[in-house]
Task: inverse folding
């Protein structure tokens, strides 16, 4: 392990990183609870749950035992033409958690593939029905992953410019604010009434990568109502919002109208193993039942339904539903809300907002995009003070593991204030 840092610089290609100018990576040698421990002996609070995945804290012993027990039974088997108890248990559990609204679970490996599968399900649904629909509706600022379908339905810009000519056509609705809601609803109705749209995809209640931008459940409800009126499939990308991040098990639990498809990943396994799931209603599933093989969803990954990942997910759900975890989620939500109220009264940040366990606030500055210079300053400031926090442009946000304690949260909160003061001082 000694030379791993040098070897990293020599052999590894990191995600979302311009290696020529980036700071060297933080060398983590241990992760436990809400903490990461670095090679040079520092303890860091994992304030963004390791890319929004880790909901129960690192090294959870119940998940560790589930993984080890499963490994001894079945590690991994092909999932086409074969089944095994853990995948079935997880699929049944997810269907039950939706009160049977969803009928089927299709497994893949991550958030992008869960979205990719959802899009393919929709396009092929219309193809199988004999009336192909090609258009897709999404929201400006959307992020749904880095594979081609997922990139196509995401915000066009810096991240995907080299590939843009390869994307399929997507119509984007403006992101809702207080003033444009009626206008967007009219636009959505006009577009969807054309009968050309296969689906409408959205991140329910919060757009993550766009800067933890929050919007109203009542408005989303209306979008889905319109889509349903024109038989347009709706895809809720709950990759980030799932598993109580927004205060309810799924963000869509706060809606009256339910989506036809739900994409899950990140917190699904407690954030310890890669796994994606695309949940579909029976209407969708039934459209693939046919005497012709080509009408099936001819899609699958080598690690589809991986038994160890499914075991981790089942145990993560057990932990999630425990009264103790529910209490922690409630506490975290309350702490975040209190701090947001405090921040609002101090007026050092813009757009202070909370949704469930997520708090976000924008630093006042001119450059607000993902590459805003202040982002790197904030990142370093928190790192130097023992907190790993990955801002999105000028937006600082906290979505920690649910096991975080009040002392650590207070430390993060005071850094919010001291950093804003420092920025104001050095302007
Ligand atoms: N959808 C949403 C809403 C996401 O936030 C992300 C990842 N941040 C993805 C999809 C893609 O997930 P993954 O990185 O696991 O491919």
Result:
């Amino acid at each position: 392990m000694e030379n791993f840092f040098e070897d990293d610089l020599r052999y590894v290609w990191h995600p979302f990183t311009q290696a020529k100018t980036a700071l060297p990576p933080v060398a983590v040698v241990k992760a436990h609870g809400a903490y990461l421990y670095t090679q040079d002996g520092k303890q860091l609070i994992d304030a963004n749950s390791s890319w929004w995945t880790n909901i129960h804290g690192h090294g959870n012993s119940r998940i560790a035992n589930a993984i080890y027990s499963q490994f001894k039974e079945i590690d991994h088997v092909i999932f086409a033409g074969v089944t095994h108890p853990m995948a079935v248990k997880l699929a049944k559990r997810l269907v039950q958690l939706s009160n049977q609204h969803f009928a089927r679970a299709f497994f893949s490996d991550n958030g992008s593939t869960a979205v990719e599968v959802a899009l393919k399900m929709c396009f092929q649904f219309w193809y199988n029905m004999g009336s192909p629909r090609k258009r897709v509706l999404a929201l400006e600022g959307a992020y749904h992953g880095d594979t081609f379908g997922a990139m196509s339905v995401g915000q066009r810009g810096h991240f995907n410019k080299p590939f843009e000519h390869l994307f399929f056509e997507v119509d984007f609705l403006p992101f809702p604010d207080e003033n444009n809601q009626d206008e967007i609803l009219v636009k959505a109705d006009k577009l969807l009434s054309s009968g050309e749209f296969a689906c409408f995809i959205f991140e329910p209640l919060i757009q993550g990568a766009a800067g933890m931008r929050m919007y109203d459940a009542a408005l989303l409800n209306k979008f889905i109502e319109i889509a349903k009126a024109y038989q347009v499939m709706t895809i809720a990308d709950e990759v980030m919002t799932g598993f109580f991040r927004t205060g309810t098990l799924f963000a869509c639990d706060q809606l009256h109208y339910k989506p036809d498809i739900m994409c899950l990943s990140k917190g699904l396994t407690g954030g310890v193993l890669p796994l994606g799931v695309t949940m579909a209603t029976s209407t969708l599933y039934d459209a693939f039942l046919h005497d012709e093989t080509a009408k099936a969803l001819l899609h699958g990954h080598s690690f589809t339904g991986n038994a160890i990942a499914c075991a981790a997910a089942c145990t993560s759900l057990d932990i999630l539903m425990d009264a103790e975890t529910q209490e922690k989620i409630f506490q975290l939500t309350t702490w975040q809300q209190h701090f947001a109220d405090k921040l609002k009264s101090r007026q050092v940040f813009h757009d202070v907002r909370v949704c469930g366990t997520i708090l976000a606030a924008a630093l006042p500055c001119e450059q607000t995009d993902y590459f805003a210079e202040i982002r790197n300053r904030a990142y370093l400031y928190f790192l130097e003070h023992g907190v790993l926090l990955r801002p999105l442009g000028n937006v600082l946000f906290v979505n920690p593991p649910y096991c975080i304690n009040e002392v650590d949260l207070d430390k993060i909160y005071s850094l919010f204030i001291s950093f804003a003061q420092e920025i104001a001082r050095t302007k």
In short: The first strand starts at residue 28 and ends at 32. The chain is about 40% helix and 15% strand.
